[in-house]
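Lecture notes, part 5. Sequence design as translation. It can be helpful to think of inverse folding as translation between two languages: the language of shapes and the language of residues. The source text, in structure tokens, appears below.
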């Protein structure tokens, strides 16, 4: 597809903003494994699943309360190569591109960040599809309360619980007067973090990349994003997304002398998976009667 720049007409700077989905999932999942993806270690890292070693009453013998150590690990594999590429002619670079960073680089970075969000959502969606809880639009609180009860029964930490919802469920919740509207306090961080509100112990976030909702903690899912090595033969640098997700990316420009084309590439290796099935509960929106 050809990329057509805004030329000929004078376009006022900051006159309009590109409408793009909020990027939120990168902050809500386990990301600590990223540091372990280093040279010579391959494309897979095994993450230990958080667990509790139960204590028993001492009855006079340590043998009676001793068990073997049985650690469980989950592999996180960088199995997606997310990339955004755009070709620029000599005319583009000379006459059409006034600000390379604003017109070319940052839209590419935002596109790769969006792809990362979709990869994380892809790991979350099967949990939602397998869920048995249904949100009634007329009374959405019941299902959310039940999800909290399930996590309580599983002894999941209550301090860091979030509810991630799709746009339809967001609309249902915003019509509920019991939802604590954190945005009404005027907090810039709440707006930036895309927090919809708080209800029954959950901070509520919206993403358009899932269908349904998931009640979860950070350790329910794991994601890793790694910047590929820059090719030695080209100019380039590291790039970061502008939405605060700390997504590592690589940017480089390759030049084709025969056609006088320059190619701007932004790329990242991405992997996401379920880390602990006990730390998430899937919910679906009830289908309205025909």
């Amino acid at each position: 597809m050809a990329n057509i720049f805004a030329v000929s007409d004078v376009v006022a700077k900051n006159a309009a903003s590109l409408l793009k989905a909020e990027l939120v999932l990168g902050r809500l999942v386990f990301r600590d494994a990223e540091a372990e993806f280093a040279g010579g270690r391959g494309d897979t890292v095994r993450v230990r699943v958080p667990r509790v070693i139960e204590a028993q009453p001492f009855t006079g013998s340590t043998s009676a309360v001793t068990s073997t150590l049985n650690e469980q690990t989950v592999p996180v594999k960088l199995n997606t190569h997310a990339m955004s590429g755009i070709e620029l002619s000599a005319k583009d670079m000379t006459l059409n591109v006034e600000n390379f960073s604003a017109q070319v680089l940052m839209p590419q970075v935002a596109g790769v960040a969006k792809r990362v969000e979709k990869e994380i959502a892809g790991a979350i969606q099967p949990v939602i599809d397998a869920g048995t809880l249904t949100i009634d639009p007329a009374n959405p609180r019941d299902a959310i309360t039940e999800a909290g009860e399930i996590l309580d029964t599983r002894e999941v930490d209550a301090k860091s619980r979030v509810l991630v919802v799709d746009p339809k469920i967001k609309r249902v919740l915003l019509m509920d007067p019991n939802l604590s509207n954190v945005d009404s306090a005027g907090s810039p961080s709440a707006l930036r973090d895309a927090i919809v509100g708080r209800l029954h112990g959950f901070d509520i976030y919206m993403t358009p990349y899932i269908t349904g909702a998931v009640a979860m903690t950070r350790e329910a899912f794991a994601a890793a994003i790694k910047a590929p090595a820059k090719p030695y033969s080209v100019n380039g640098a590291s790039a970061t997304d502008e939405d605060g997700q700390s997504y590592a990316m690589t940017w480089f420009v390759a030049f084709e002398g025969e056609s006088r084309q320059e190619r701007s590439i932004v790329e990242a290796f991405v992997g996401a998976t379920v880390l602990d099935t006990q730390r998430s509960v899937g919910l679906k929106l009830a289908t309205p009667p025909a």
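The translated text above is only one of many valid answers, since several sequences can fold into similar shapes. The chain has six helices and 13 strands.
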